[in-house]
Design a protein that fits this description.
- By secondary structure, this protein is α+β, with helices and mostly antiparallel strands.
- It contains two helices and nine strands, in the order H-E-E-E-E-E-E-E-E-E-H.
- The strands form three sheets. Strands 3-2-5-6 form a four-stranded antiparallel sheet, with no helix packed on it.
- A hairpin with a 2-residue loop joins strand 5 and strand 6.
- The chain is elongated.
- The termini are far apart.
- The mean pLDDT is 79.
Amino acid sequence: MIIPPEQENTFSYRKVVNYIVFVFQHLILILKIEFMKRKLFMFLSLFFIGMGIATAQTQVRGTVVDEAGEPIIGATIQLKSDATRGTVTDIDGNFSLSAPANGTLVISYVGLITQEVPVGPTVKVTLLPDMELLDEVVVTALGLTREKKSLGYAVADIKSEELLKSRGGLTNPI
């Protein structure tokens, strides 16, 4: 059988070279994509690990007691670095708070000395009484607290007995 010249398979070095160049270009492109995927994966992994380390939080559980060992109800526990994050103790003097691993807790209660303790998984704090007595304190209509002698205007005194008296069946004694 005779093959016409237009259908004859002709061997051309140009076709072979073009095909080899085509294959190498695609191979290089695939390798670049794989390399970029690895770089992106590595970057994201390191980023999230770094964020995890930077924001490592510890769940702190603890108890606040007085010098007799009795639980203190309503003691305030705050982070020293962020006073907006805190909690209060329950009826058994227990508290739970999420805090940075290297943070400091500030524990306070009225009439007791404020203490600062490092963050740990469990904390037991004994608050000691504050021996300083309060002077006369005046709370103004604006909610500001001042000593009586520092005010430049008249102050009405209300005794604690007056607050406890009932006036004409009203539920609010003030």
